[in-house]
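We modelled the chain as a single entity of 143 amino acids. Its sequence is:
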Amino acid sequence: MVGAMGKKLKYESCYDSVILEHEKKMAEKLRDILEPYEREFIRLGFTFTSELYWYDWKTRKVSYERFPFRKGYQYALSVKIEKEGEILWCNGEDYLFWATEMAFSYIGTRLFQTNVYLLEDTSEFTKDLDLFLETAKCTAAEK
């Protein structure tokens, strides 16, 4: 068990349906979380892009189609926020865009045991979005 973060299970193929159900649940939860952020960023004149993707840590490949379950498998959501023709700042640094991501399932090995991690804690993800939104509102107010 991983606690508030989510669940940790020894990976066995019998858990494939549990992984799929968790991923579906988290995709829906994150869609609900993102909706008000997207509306507000668009209202402020920003482009807001979110993508669900799979990443294979063994091959370092990204795909928009599911990889087979195996060590190195990860399912995540990324968000990219930008404003055409402008350099964005955050915490005193300049950026071409702001980005954050959240993995909500991955399969990895620790101490010779392959585990699946089903992550649920969105607090760091939403903390990033809150910071970006606060900065965007301040920037808009200055203009």
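As a brief sanity check on the tokenised model: The chain has one domain: 6-137. The chain has two helices and eight strands.
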